[in-house]
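tool=predict chain=A
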Amino acid sequence: MSGRGELTPRNRRGKSTSSSTGDHARAGAKMDVPEDLRGFNLLFFITEAIGLVGVVMMAIWTSFHRGGFAWRSNPGLEFNWHPLLNTIGMIYLFANSILVYRALRTIRKKTLKLIHAAIHFVVLVLVLIAFIAVLDSHNLAVPAIPNFYSLHSWLGIVTVLIYVLQWVFGFAAFLYPGFPQNLRGAIMPIHTFMGLLAFVLAIATAFTGLTEKALFSVKDYSAFSGETYLINFMGLIFILFGGMVVYLATEPKYKRYPRPEDGGLLSGSSE
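tool=predict ok
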């Protein structure tokens, strides 16, 4: 005869025999493999600081060494919006959109998805303005400068195409309520990989852009001027920042495990 003192094996572990498979899936990962966040806060702070240093260095370079900013009245200065906005958008904000799930892990998944998508939308706006700026600076120059012939421009096009496709398909798959749950699970690893690929390509594009601009526009670049050091150290900062972001995004012990309170966005199902 079964009573309160005669618990089943599942009951001894504190689980009710009537618990659903879905409840176990939501809480299981977190309970079975506890999150190990040792060192995360320090590394995240260092990464953010490095990224901000890169943005500040780019602002100093474009403001003081490259003459500042204008729009179509001065195409040469209009160009300076291109590296600055892309640094803010495709490097710094893009990185934060990647890390938001780990940095803000206590926030509900629904809110994290909206923050993630919103950051990406801001990046797209900045990239569009930067794209217009570089086209104007070429087309309105006298004589006009050819477009899309350099490795830098080709890398930029590939990076932006991947980024836009990521945003469109990610919005459809993870924010649209009617998207099949099994397909979401299948798409997630691809979405994660392509996002990191686009970020690494953004770093490579910035690196080639710095080199191209330095060789074409900095007359005393080979003479180790102050601008030489600024450009070179800025490139190293971008590489270091990219490496730190990829590490934090791929380190298994820093993974955000599902919470029981996580609800499927707009659908009521768990993710």
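DSSP finds nine helices and no strands in the chain. The first helix runs from residue 9 to 12.
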